[in-house]
Amino acid sequence: MNLVWLALAILVSAFCSGALGAMLGLGGGAFLIPLLTLVLGIDVRLAIGTSMVAIVATALGMAVSRLRDPLTNTRVGVLLLLGATAGSVTGAVLAGRVAERWLYVLFGVLMAYSAFAMLGRRRTGAAVAAAEKGDALAQRWRLGGAYFDPALGREVSYQPTRTLTGTVAMYFTGLIGGLLGIGAGALKVLVLVRVLSLPLKVSAATSNFLNGMAAAAAAAIFFARGQIDPSITGPAALGVLAGAFCGSRLLVRLSPATLQWIFVPVLFWVAAQMIWKGIAT
Amino acid sequence: MSSPEAKPTDAAQRLTLIGTILTIIGASVAALFIAAGTALHLNQPRGGAVLPPTSLPEIWQGAAGLEATAVISLGLLVLVATPAVRVVTILLQCLWDGDKTFALICLSVLGLLALGAVLA
To answer: How many other C-beta atoms can be found within 10 angstroms of the C-beta atom of residue B110?
Structure first.
């Protein structure tokens, strides 16, 4: 492929990945890696390195899109970063010592289960409601928050529940992310929604905050390993930055139900992709 | 409803704003370097593939000589370093508000990030 066309193709793919990543809190790697490897024929090792930088770019694109971000709960984010970063560092240290194929399969099965669980919730009409009374730790450390939801036309207040369990669960999402070289954003969103009972929009935004920090540490490792090709990662970073900027603005306008309709098929897509990778490795 | 939400003080809000502005500057500078490097890369004559720089001195030296991959790498480095600004801002906010527990949590996170870099 011509160099200019390749750069343009990467830019467009990255823009779409960044927009979806910002809306769903996935970081964008789940879309970018298959697009780069399966569609553009780029080596998977370089695609993973690019994906780590793309996750950072998604978080930055979101942060830049609004001066005062009402969705990201930074207090909850910082607390969970303790677990996520510790897990990420452990994962990076352990990387290469565990058979990756089983981790891929495990991750895929977990995603598929989560997608089914979310689908079941919607079918029974039980919306993912924000908790109004948090646990003792959330009250003591003032972890609650509120934001105005234009889609609902009212302010949504919430209080995190099971804060400690969530922090421990984040350790494992960080561990998986560090081992596999991905953001594991889908898993983070699930922990935020199912364990901490945060609204989906807050979970997506806070997940991107977590992803950005964890990926920034990992990206440095990929740099040192020579797994980042600037001619590929450069256009990808630019595309993701712009895509995340636009996706973040869309996130505020979408209704939680629409967000869930997008999120469930994405979970299935990630699950199928991971299981396939585990089997094919 | 009396919700125990974190109510930011004026000083904390100012710090948040400074953190956001620094993030915007970091992202913009990174985007500028990456765009300039990509433009250089697309206009360079093909052939004679050069290995991209992986260490800081190589990146500095290459960027100073307007080498395309080094200029892009410099932009990517700025991009990757920018998120840490946010944690530092939150740490300063907590110190300003006398929130010692959260300041300690922020310090631990920064320590873990540094540990990751050292282990790399």
So the answer is: 17
Backbone angles phi, psi at A144, to 5 degrees: -70, 170
Task: Note whether A269 and A30 are within 8 A (CB).
Answer: yes
Burial A2-17 (b: 16+ CB within 10 A, else e): eeeebbebbbebbbbb
Average pLDDT rounded to a whole number, residues A185-195: 85
DSSP character at residue A28:
S
Q: Which residues in chain B have Cβ-Cβ distances shorter than 8 Å to A57?
A: 79
Q: Cβ-count burial of A37 within 10 angstroms (0-12 exposed, 13-18 middle, 19+ buried)?
A: middle
Q: How confident is the model at residue A123 (pLDDT cuts 50, 70, 90)?
A: very low
What letter represents residue A21's amino acid? G
Decide if B115 and A89 are in contact by the 8 Å CB cutoff.
Answer: yes
pLDDT at residue A236 in the model: 94
Nearest to B102 among A63, A75, A89 (CB): A75
Torsion angle in degrees (nearest 10) through CA of B70, B71, B73, B79: 160
**Residue B79: partners with Cβ closer than 8 Å, 6 or more residues away:** A53, A56, A57, A60, A237, B26, B27, B30, B31, B34
* Widest CA span in chain A: 59
Vertex A230 angle, CA A224 and A235, to 5°: 140
Residues in chain B: 120
pLDDT for residue B30 is more than 90: yes
User: Can you tell me the distance from the alpha carbon of A190 to that of A37, in angstroms, rounded to the nearest whole number?
Assistant: 27
Confidence band (pLDDT; 50, 70, 90) for B1?
A: very low
In chain B, what residues touch A157 (CB-CB under 8 Å)? 1, 3, 5
Tokens at B97, concatenated: 């508000």
Question: Sign of the CA dihedral A268, A271, A274, A276?
Answer: negative
Residue A157's DSSP bridge partners are: A146
Do the chains contact at B119 and A219, CB–CB below 8 Å? no
ipTM: 0.82
Instruction: Decide: A228 and A50 in contact? Cβ < 8 Å.
Output: yes
Min Cα distance B64 → chain A (Å) is 16
